[in-house]
Design a protein that fits this description.
The protein has one helix and 18 strands. By secondary structure, the chain is an all-beta fold.
């Protein structure tokens, strides 16, 4: 779906040359390659504003966008206005937008052909990177505000107070994990383990690590009476 005109807004989204510096190494999932938070590209001074665009207006007037992803000189990101954007990194010109049914809080993932993102409308979307055409959608039971993390032939996303969904890249559901207490979930996958996953069914408030291939919990840490503790 092509964007015909820019939206009138009170606040605008700005990208600096810093984002453009990511294009060489690519930045296709949350925190970059292996979750390291570093780009292979190098930028030099001076750093300045290259271009900016306005975001669409949302009914509650909030303005935010989630972490942009970069692949093949294209930026991908979702926004509180319910749109998922594809833009040329050099010019800021719009390639396409996809409209979801609610604000997009989830950090997306892109692979060679497709982009994957969740929305507060409860849907997980897979769209063509080249055109924005919808490949498939999967309806969960609640808002999908988590990171979208790839693993082998799957993408993993969590629906608030519902489940963690393991969905094959063809749109088929592989399996789910219960998630009765967590929302806005951010997690990572390393060495076949899903870390910071919702706790076990017996202790859903615990902090757990789940073995994806064996489909069993490796361990779970009791977080105790504190609601928001820090652990190392």
């Amino acid at each position: 779906m092509k964007l015909k005109s820019l939206f009138a807004v009170a606040a605008s989204l700005a990208f600096s040359i810093l984002i453009a510096g990511c294009s060489g190494g690519g930045w296709t999932t949350f925190r970059g390659v292996d979750g390291g938070g570093r780009s292979a590209s190098v930028i030099g001074a001076p750093i300045g504003l290259k271009w900016k665009i306005p975001l669409g207006r949302h009914e509650n007037a909030r303005r935010f966008f989630n972490q942009p992803l970069v692949a093949d000189d294209t930026i991908y990101f979702g926004s509180s206005d319910g749109n998922f954007y594809s833009m040329d990194i050099g010019t800021g010109l719009m390639n396409w937008t996809v409209r979801s049914g609610g604000p997009i809080n989830a950090v997306a993932h892109v692979d060679r052909d497709n982009a994957y993102f969740g929305s507060s409308d409860g849907m997980i979307y897979c769209v063509r990177r080249a055109t924005g055409e919808t490949v498939w959608t999967y309806q969960t039971q609640s808002a999908v505000n988590s990171t979208i993390v790839p693993y082998r032939d799957m993408v993993v996303a969590a629906s608030d107070f519902d489940s963690v969904y393991f969905i094959k890249t063809n749109g088929e559901l592989a399996f789910t994990l219960p998630n009765s207490v967590w929302s806005l979930n951010s997690f990572c996958i390393h060495d076949g383990a899903l870390a910071f996953t919702p706790g076990t069914p017996e202790d859903p408030t615990s902090l757990a690590v789940y073995d994806i291939d064996r489909r069993e919990y490796r361990w779970a840490l009791d977080t105790g009476p504190n609601r928001y503790p820090w652990f190392s």
